[in-house]
Amino acid sequence: MQLGYQASLQAPAFLATEQEERADGRIKDVSAQQDAILAAQERWGEGPELRDAIINLFRDCDVPLLELMSFLESSTDQTVIGHAFTGITLRFNDPSLQSLADAGDISSLIHASYHGKNFGDVLNIYINSAEKEEERLSRLQEAFTVLEQADFNSNPRLVPPLLRNLARNFSAKETPELLDQLIQGKFKLLENAEFQQTVLEALSNGSAVTALDHLAGYSEIADEAKWSLAHGALEFSQASLKNYVEDHPGDLVAKAVYAKKLLQQGFPETLRHLLHEEGFEESSAYGRRLGGQLWSHDARIVGAEARKNPEKVVRDFARGTSQFETCHLVTAVNEWMKADGEAAAQWVENEGINLPPEDRQFVAISYAREAAKQGEFDLAHQWADLILDEERKSRVMREIASKQ
Questions:
Q1: Are the C-beta atoms of 153 and 195 separated by less than 8 Å?
Q2: CA dist 250 to 215, 218, 247, 323, 398, Å?
Q3: 104 alpha-carbon distance from chain centroid
Q4: What pTM did the predictor assign?
Q5: 42 three-state secondary structure
Q6: 65 near 88, Cβ under 8 Å?
Q7: Torsion of CA 55, 60, 63, 66, to 10 degrees
Q8: DSSP H helical ranges for 19-132
Q9: What are the pLDDT digits (tens) for 173-221?
């Protein structure tokens, strides 16, 4: 394989006598490496000859990778660092020079950064330098196998920056077997939620819908990762995500992403139906979040309608003909009190008080707050006693207490 650099460095004389360091023609010790760099600098100063010399020294030496990377960390010469790192990465262009399995202490390599360079850069170059697709996939497999030796638990934040580029080697179409192994837990890397999400985000850069199809039914994939992937599909095509949701009705996370998009477009009914699916809102953080978004959406609509005709909106709630949850009756009653307090009070006295207790509590919330605002605290407490929902009641009681 042509590596792009020809050896232009003649070995310094002192190295020729140190056969124990160069038993096979390669430098085997970092101190000898440093001496060779100094000799090259003295001979060529700066320029392409020095560049090629340093690149070849690091490409062709037999020093453990960890020691070479540590050398980069200790060096202050940015020119040398740049050329040395090029040489280190070039040695991974050719498996005959050194395989990933010979890299040394993987955990130490991963947990360090060398003037902005890290082992992830080496991995990515190693994988993508393969001339054939089957070789690239083989190297990708090897990279994951080697990384199994690393312990990410001590610093999980390292995983996304280290492996983001590596993850972008994925494609749901190209690497189904490797992806299956990841999903099925054969690699402990997938236990790291951030890495899992990084991999799936990378998949979404190719064909997110294909990736979703591939992942359907895998409970091992975290909701956060599926959420990110579904957004990738949505950005590509809303119609494709719609088709996926219709074909996979059990994927509530993807369905939630689609329903959220429809809500933003002014069509809340899909989300409304989804939130009524058994267990969705209670078991999913996204269910609770979307429930809040739907509540805010409906509150805005009810408020706008009530400002136009509060009596009609209130009576729709009382008759059970409103499309909105009864909790929004609070908003409608508030608007009626502001528009015509006497008419609202008359309705409450004649009709509102006879509503079912679970509906009447929302009228009580409005009047408890209004009484407290006017300093009628005994009356406020009487209204508050009609609130059945303990969480809402506690909230109103705190509001009353704050005004006393």
A1: no
A2: 12, 11, 9, 26, 41
A3: 30
A4: 0.50
A5: helix
A6: yes
A7: 50
A8: 30-44, 48-60, 65-74, 78-91, 106-110, 119-128
A9: 555 565 555 555 544 555 555 566 666 655 555 566 666 776 665 555 6
